[in-house]
Amino acid sequence: MSEEQQEALRNPLTGVLLRIVAVLTAALAIYHIFNFGALTGYTMLTGEYIYGLLAMMLPMVFIAIPAGRGRRVNPVPWYDWMMALASAGCCLFFISNQSVSVDEGWEYAAPEHVVWFSLALWLIALEATRRCGGWPIFVVVFLASIFPIFAGRLPDSFAGISTPIDLVAIYHTNSDESLLGIPSQAFANLVIGFLLFGIALQRTGGGKFFIDLAFALLGKVRGGPAKVSIFSSGLMGSMSGSVVTNVLTTGPLSIPAMRKVGFSRPYAAGVETCASTGGVLMPPVMGATAFVMATFLDIPYGEIALAAAIPSALYFFGLFVQIDFYSARNKLKGLPAIDLPRVKDTLKEGWHYIFVFAFLIWMLLFMKQEAIAPFYATALLLVINQLRKHSRWRWKDFKDFAESCGALFAELTGLMAGVGLIMGALAVSGMSGTIANDLLFIAGGDMFVLLLMGALTSFILGIGMPVTAAYIFLAIALAPALINGGMNPMAVHMFILYWGMLSFITPPVAIGAFAAASVAGSSPMKTSFVSMQMGSIIYFIPFFFVLEPALVLQGSGAEIAKAIACAAAGILLVAGGLQGYLPKLGDLSERGWLHWPLRLLFIFGGMLLAMPHNPLINMSELQLFGLSFALIAAGVLLTLAHRTLRPA
């Protein structure tokens, strides 16, 4: 459903409440993050701050999101008002007693009335998770959250410490490991500001500017509209942090343009799906998972964004060359120049978006102010926007902006609260400290086997739950085992994030591909298979950087340069093999029976070239390079020989 349709169905009272709560949430976040407590004389405890956000956003989950599927009824049902009031009341109770909770250690022992409040909030958080994330994530969160109650009765491999339900309830609501844990802390301290910036960028016309700029730069080259999709979707995905939102935003423009120059419906939808998926991995504004990762690793978000730059660039490079080779093989041209915007005019209209992006990057990477940077960037963007007559907001635009922020805040709050329950359950049962050793035992101590297990598990979890939830579960369960085995922490966490994203392009689920298919009017399943083939390079890139941390900037300058050069050359050859076309060698399908042997030679040669030296691989770097060179040389010589010997 489009944003306009959602707004048409929304209860007017719901819109008013969303706007009010969004303003109050932003004000509370600014008060805490900018430390205005030093001026007023009242500084909130972390628990007070997070429960303050929950007290505003959890009620909106029940007011804005209906209990069942479909539109919000008008008026809001009485039971949703009761849930909203109950959630606000529980959160206010814990706010007013936060100091007592810390002093008396309520996470381990609490008065009976506190237990009842804790049980009520636990149930409310579960229902909020169901409404925001759907039944699959609800089932996972529910089973995980009650796991400590039955942990001692399970087989030894899965057993933990059994804990009475009253102690589990107070731990969920009063400890720093559950509702107040890493997901909520990341949301409260980092995500809110970047959400404000992303929504402001879209609402002021940033999305249109980036799409126009992409058409102006790339629209007339061969396969131009598909390359436009890569460029524009990468930038839009960085703003929205959502694959489906990105597809539905840029797809209606890029997919018809691709169809116009000769791309089939499934291929056009597949290109858009892959580009939108990669956009969520593109710095500087990545999805919510990246902020949770920064909190897990206890490093500035700017370092996460910087480390993600090379893997995301390699992914988009792989997509770009595949489209170029496909277009060359099928003789697809670009759009007529007369139908495209001019670069000069586009930059004149939207230069300030680039300026604000540069300002944000400067604040993140050079000033190291990742918490306050998005607030300054948002303010700068809105000020410039109001100074420009043709894009100046009216009062209705400000109201729509606040309403969009409120709706997104409420949805993410419900998800983060539910994911926090998973962490709390693993912590109170003792499983968070032992599950890594269990996984190592199952893998027989082999790190490569453990990587394959982690990739498969990340993919499966990515099918059934949001990427953030899947990432957090594996960051607790799998990451310590890999790190203890000697792998780089940054590379390991990035590996989990990438594999969790693959469910968006991989059948049978492929949510992103299904969304693109609806725009293109193509078969959803056929589109998902095309997406998997188009985005196949992303299946290999996580293994490249987890085995060679230099690709996530964990190494010397020389190591990083060499790793990038080998990876880029390898990806070029793999893409050529997948598409059956390479520059200077031409269309490999014209080589008769040598067609597939040649493609396989270039695919395997490229993979070995990009494959870094690592103790997990029983070959030296020189041996890997020699084998890859031999395969590539054989492919080139066979291609040239067939061309020379082929009859005229």
UniProtKB/TrEMBL annotation:
GO molecular function annotation: transmembrane transporter activity
GO (cellular component) term, any one: plasma membrane
Membrane-crossing residue ranges in chain numbering: 12-34, 49-66, 78-96, 108-126, 133-151, 182-201, 267-292, 304-326, 347-365, 408-430, 450-483, 495-517, 537-553, 560-581, 593-610, 622-641
Subcellular localization(s) per the UniProt record: Cell inner membrane
One Pfam family linked to the record: DctM
Membrane topology: Multi-pass membrane protein
Keywords: Cell inner membrane, Cell membrane, Membrane, Transmembrane, Transmembrane helix, Transport
Domain TRAP C4-dicarboxylate transport system permease DctM subunit intervals: 121-556
PANTHER family: BLL3936 PROTEIN (PTHR43849)
The protein's name in its UniProt record: TRAP transporter, 4TM/12TM fusion protein
